[in-house]
Write a structure and sequence with these properties.
- Helix content is 45%, strand content 4%.
- With 433 residues, it is mostly helical.
- A two-stranded antiparallel sheet has the order 1-4. Strands 2-3 form a two-stranded parallel sheet. It has a two-stranded antiparallel sheet with strand order 5-6.
- Helix 7 packs antiparallel against helix 8.
- It is elongated.
- The N and C termini lie far apart (63 Å).
């Protein structure tokens, strides 16, 4: 077959030899190796622990029953710029630091001071109250059990003698501290529980500190004895009365109910010789070490309550966090989350209560002036707007889980009901399969 290329059009060898190679190199694209993208930096600084202030002079305080004061975004901003915000941040982070690199068993009840043993005794008495108020038969319903209201009523009736056992004599101090304890177990009207109720328990401990009953020397015992005991009690209450998640982030968050155990638990695991963040996927590690470390205990409980195995399906955020380089990164991330997702969330903090020991900032709204019902009587949670015509619940379109207008059944209840029926765990078969 004849060539279609005209040989006369091709340059001669002598002409090719005369071409400067540098000219050819300049026209050819330079091949350079691709550089790896720099690691993504978290723009949020790691929150530091503010200095913890000494106990106040009680004679200068006006103690009273705590009420809600964050009723608008403006109130929330006043709170975040107030000394009370710094006080809460300092107390929570100080408790977390007190547990750093320590097992739960590193402190025993026998060596704990008297106030710690009294708190543990109070929590045991509250657990015994569950037996006095058995759950009502709901016919397989997975929503909140109304017997929970009876449980809270009994706890409320016993609160005064419990606080008197601490040596408190002023009724105003007992009333203020008791309010936080009552609200530590869930909402009586909605029969739900969330990170705001968990925070109430921490504020109850803070009130006892402000009343000079829990000095900083007791912080390790609070973090490693009292707080794990409270979480164990709450797991029993949740499984008994089917408490609904309050504004649940459960599917895409850390846990359906709790947050602070992950902060304290990450602090416990700092500098651990062999447990890494990725170890939460190892069931043997969870089984052997879960009783010693809050973080592992929470993961173990979360996995046990889900019918589908695998954190990437049930708790994607926990799965993502497990990819962190070390526990220091995890602990720093939990600090950021507490500031942003708990104290920084208006739907959470609108249920926060202020009294004399944990005072509101000057200029914040009041329930009576705004015509707002007390927290215990509020039928809807989530964000609300105070208007001239009254209070309006805000239904959020951007984050369904932040709005309490939709009742969310408990996964713990689903697990309990399935166990009663003898159903096996696992993926449910599609009906037409």
């Amino acid at each position: 077959m004849p060539s279609v290329i005209d040989d006369a059009a091709l340059p001669s060898r002598s002409k090719l030899a005369s071409i400067d190679k540098s000219q050819i190199d300049a026209k050819l694209p330079r091949l350079t190796p691709r550089k790896k993208a720099p690691p993504r930096q978290n723009l949020l600084p790691v929150p530091e622990t503010p200095a913890f202030p000494p106990s106040p002079d009680l004679s200068s305080l006006c103690l009273h029953e705590p009420t809600r004061r964050i009723l608008s975004p403006y109130d929330h901003e006043l709170f975040r710029a107030s000394p009370t915000y710094e006080l809460i941040l300092s107390f929570v982070f100080s408790l977390s630091e007190a547990a750093a690199s320590k097992k739960i068993s590193s402190i025993t009840v026998e060596e704990a001071p008297d106030p710690i043993r009294q708190i543990l005794s109070t929590l045991s008495s509250i657990e015994n109250t569950i037996k006095q108020c058995p759950p009502a038969d709901q016919g397989g319903s997975r929503f909140g059990n109304p017997a929970f209201r009876d449980f809270l009523d009994v706890v409320s009736a016993q609160s005064s003698p419990w606080h008197s056992a601490f040596g408190l004599t002023h009724q105003s101090a007992i009333t203020e501290a008791s309010t936080y304890l009552h609200n530590s177990f869930g909402n009586r009207t909605r029969i739900d529980y969330g990170s705001g109720h968990e925070l109430n328990f921490i504020i109850w401990l803070l009130c006892l500190n402000r009343l000079s009953l829990l000095p900083p020397s007791t912080f390790p015992a609070l973090a490693l004895l009292v707080f794990p005991r409270y979480i164990t009690l709450m797991r029993k209450i949740q499984s008994t009365y089917y408490l609904e998640p309050a504004g649940s982030h459960g599917v895409w968050g850390l846990d359906d109910y709790h947050f602070l155990p992950f902060l304290v638990g990450a602090s416990q695991l700092l500098h651990h010789p062999y447990i890494r963040p990725l170890s939460i996927h190892n069931e043997l590690v969870l089984e052997e070490e879960g009783d010693e470390y809050l973080y592992l205990s929470m993961v173990r409980e979360t996995m046990a309550s889900k019918s589908v195995k695998g954190l990437k399906w049930t708790q994607p955020m926990l799965d993502d966090v497990s990819g962190a380089k070390n526990w220091e990164k995890v602990e720093q991330g939990m600090r950021r989350m507490f500031v942003k997702e708990v104290l920084g969330k208006l739907p959470v903090m609108q249920h926060f209560l202020f009294g004399g020991l944990v005072p509101a900032a000057e200029g914040m709204s009041g329930e009576r002036e705004a015509g707002v019902k007390p927290e215990a009587e509020e039928s809807e949670g989530g964000e609300m707007a105070v208007e001239e015509g009254g209070v309006r619940h805000v239904h959020r379109d951007d984050a369904w889980g932040d709005c309490c207008g939709i009742k969310i059944p408990s996964t713990v209840a689903a697990h309990q009901e399935a166990s009663k029926k003898g159903e096996e765990e696992g993926l449910r078969r599609i009906p037409f399969d």
